[in-house]
Amino acid sequence: MLKRVHFPSSLLPYLLVAPQILITLVFFIWPASQAVYQSFLIEDAFGLSTEFVWFENFELLIEDAQYLQSFGRTILFSAAVAVLSMGSALILAGFADRVVRGATTYRTLMIWPYAVAPVLAGALWVFMFNPTLGIFPFLLDMVGIDWNHYLNGTQAMTLVIFAAAWKQIAYNFLFYLAAMQSIPRSLIEAAAIDGAGPVRRFVDHIFPLISPTTFFLLVINAVYAFFDTFGIIHAVTQGGPANSTTILVYKVYNDGFVGLDLGGSAAQSVILMILVIAMTVVQFRFIERKVEY
Amino acid sequence: MASITLDNLVKAYGDTEVLHHVAGQIEDGEFIVIVGPSGCGKSTLLRMVAGLETVTAGQISIGDRVVNQLEPADRDIAMVFQNYALYPHMSVRENMAYGLKIRKISKDEIARRVEEAADILELRPYLDRKPRQLSGGQRQRVAMGRAIVRNPQVFLFDEPLSNLDAKLRVQMRLEIRKLQQRLGVTSIYVTHDQVEAMTLGDRLMVLNGGYVEQFGTPIELYDRPATTFVAGFIGSPAMNFLPATAAEGSVTLANGARIAGSGTAHGTVTLGLRPEHLLPDEGGPVRVRVELVEQLGANSLLHGQLEGTDTEMVVSMPGHMSAAADAVMAFTPTADSLHLFDPETGKRIAE
Amino acid sequence: MVENRPILNVITHLVLILGIVIVALPIWITFVAATHDAVRMTQAPIPMLPGTHFWENFTQTLFGSGLSGTETAPVWRMLLNSLAMAMMIALGKIAISLISAFAIVYFKFPFRMFFFWLIFVTLMLPVEVRILPTFEVVADLGMLNSYWGLSIPLIASATATFMFRQVFLTIPDEMLESARIDGAGPLRFFWDILIPLSRTNIAALFVILFIYGWNQYLWPLLITTDTDMTTIVMSIKQMLEAAEQSPQWNIIMMTALLAMLPPVFVVVAMQKLFVQGLTETDK
């Protein structure tokens, strides 16, 4: 952790860490502790008096059907995005791995969605699926499906799932391709000599050997789906119709900034905080336990 | 019958030809070593036999079948890779059983074969371990075990001992040879180490720059090298090459010394003399000005120059010998130890 | 490897091309939409092939007065804001993380581990988890509607620090010993030796952080009420809302295109560095 050869203590190291520590304290630790504190309060409608109510806000949340629905919805959303995005990336990376020359070209063409902001991704997809003008509703109409995600909750959820997954394919693709390319070629050749065909080789060898990457991406994708997708929801459905796409992170924003329920929103923030911490711990645990060759 | 026929093989990458008309006939049960410096094409040749590289022109036959178009899995071969290529996520037992499992051999038969191979290779205690828990030598044996259980027609070895330390290498070398003799499977073994080649092969194929320099038994290559390349490659320390002229059965060196010999060669030649074929002799024709002597215990290597010239020479003398720097020592070549080569083509001149 | 199944190669390329089509489709449609005039864009279905109005739309978007029905600054101004924010975040993060990692790795001082864990904690606090209180702090400090407010709260996260820490840990000890013999003090060592050795990592990280900064959405949304300070990524949402009343999809899509171009360009141009940085940061 510390280099064997190092400098002794003085004023200098304190000065060096000061900027980061300062900003961390002011903009991270303090607000986080404020959120925790506020989650124990209830303010009245005018913000004039506050009351310390211990865990009442949390109890209210747990009993709130809407909150629980939002929680369940978020889990569903996460799972769908992870499966769709990782599955597509796995298939694409598997094929790209077979291309001897040109793998880099395919990679270049695949990675640009990474650079697109989630909210823009949302905007693009909502444009493609615009009930009056969009190309997809037009095509769906020809097979008898009436598309209007402004009215249909399931369709709205489907739309945001696709937009979120589309954006993440690039990231997952990069990691899967890198993992596959780090498998020694001679291993695959040995399997071929042993008689394994392409599909068999993938199932018996390639997939098991990239399992650390799969674990890693699961956590990353979960965190992405929980938090980075705010922009997509905000741009595409604003949580609607009828709250059918209100995921947890959107609810925090909505209840807090729009609904001005500070205590409830703070409590939601705290719960989200606990979730992130849990996911981060899992991530670091798994990275320590990398499969060795 | 698992003989192997290499018929006029050419390998090219785009416009660059890396193997030029390689040909040879390998008999059933032979242990053939393909040897040469890095980049000479030996691994490429092996991989072509395995089916891991395409053939640009020519044919490869295993037994009676032409195998050019066949997938590696269909050629009935087994290969031991330089880095062993063991499946890291499978146990030793599973590694060895994998190829058999795919060919849908019965579980009993698989178990029997795996146990048999494990006995031969002394891998019994390790059957349930994973590769990362094994030492280099053990992993090597697992790689061989994987090849043995398949009962293939041909074994292919791609520099399997390069990753082992020197002592282990010598030990494993012997084991591979004994194993092959016991099993009697036709084998092709690739290495850049000429000592390995000499000790392992029934016959050696020396490759240089994609060309076959010579294909024969180790002793043939040692006694009658076909080119200066083979002459300099086989035998350590390497053969001395001296510019000379030949006429009427004798050879005259650049410094005027004359060596009697037989033969009809004449004109400028390159004379090859092995360091171990020069005997100390007061009146001998080959006079060397000493630079330094390396003491190896069993023999001594004398480094110097041919007197009166700049040509470097090495002489190997038995036992402990020493000589002062700048002293001149005289030697006589032993009988039949003169090798004459054409100075331009490098090819052996018939005597 | 010899695989006498050419059909498999065909399938491989087909699948990959299909993948690229799916990935590129939204962007293609956006591009096409940006090249037609407003009237064409109100007729269903929207066109799939480019039109001829690219430059017209381009100039109108860039220099026009913003879309009717929105409260956004002119697009060129928003691009500038985005650029300023992205650069400040990227450069700020790199600078702070470099010196922090240097201190943590190369100095033995009291509270060293405490600081390390403090920085680590920030990994678990993305902005979405602390939006309200952070907003309050920023407001109290009077940093709303400013470039500082847009960037400072986002530059202390730990990923960059961890990456540099990892890089520094792999630099051989002999470097420092030899520098000391040469008479270099800590800051000299840092500037003359450590930073040049970390160049590729800094470049890779810059790509990732620039994109991160440029694409910020929730935070700028909250703290800018002044139209002059809107960023281009923020404005997309407002334009979508405006589209309800008076759809000018060609302008909206052109704006979206402009909003996408800089990060995409940076990623593609520095692809190799970016991939290397990505696969090494998140470990």
TrEMBL record, chain A:
| Record's subcellular location | Cell inner membrane; Cell membrane
Alphabetized UniProt keyword annotations: Cell inner membrane, Cell membrane, Membrane, Transmembrane, Transmembrane helix, Transport
Q: How does it sit in the membrane?
A: Multi-pass membrane protein
- Signal peptide (from-to): none
Q: Does the record carry Cell membrane as a key word?
A: yes
Residue ranges spanning the membrane: these are 12-30, 75-96, 108-136, 156-178, 206-227, 266-287
The keyword Cell inner membrane belongs to this UniProt entry's keyword annotation: yes
Task: Report quaternary structure and partners.
Answer: The complex is composed of two ATP-binding proteins (UgpC), two transmembrane proteins (UgpA and UgpE) and a solute-binding protein (UgpB).
Q: What family does this belong to?
A: Belongs to the binding-protein-dependent transport system permease family. UgpAE subfamily.
Biological function: Part of the ABC transporter complex UgpBAEC involved in sn-glycerol-3-phosphate (G3P) import. Probably responsible for the translocation of the substrate across the membrane.
The entry's protein name is sn-glycerol-3-phosphate transport system permease protein UgpA
UniProtKB/TrEMBL annotation, chain C:
Instruction: Give the stretches traversing the membrane.
Output: 7-31, 83-107, 114-135, 147-168, 189-212, 249-270
Annotated ABC transmembrane type-1 domain ranges read 79-270
Superkingdom of origin: Bacteria
Q: Which UniProt keywords apply?
A: Cell inner membrane, Cell membrane, Membrane, Transmembrane, Transmembrane helix, Transport
Q: How does it sit in the membrane?
A: Multi-pass membrane protein
Specify whether Transcription is a keyword of the entry. no
Where it sits in the cell: the answer is: Cell inner membrane; Cell membrane
Give the CC-aspect GO terms.
plasma membrane
The biological process GO terms on file are:
transmembrane transport
Looking at the keywords, is Transmembrane present? yes
Name this polypeptide is given: sn-glycerol-3-phosphate transport system permease protein UgpE
Q: Which family does the similarity line name?
A: Belongs to the binding-protein-dependent transport system permease family. UgpAE subfamily.
Q: What does this protein do?
A: Part of the ABC transporter complex UgpBAEC involved in sn-glycerol-3-phosphate (G3P) import. Probably responsible for the translocation of the substrate across the membrane.
User: Pfam families of this UniProt entry?
Assistant: BPD_transp_1 (PF00528)
Quaternary structure, from the entry:
The complex is composed of two ATP-binding proteins (UgpC), two transmembrane proteins (UgpA and UgpE) and a solute-binding protein (UgpB).
Coiled coil start-end: none
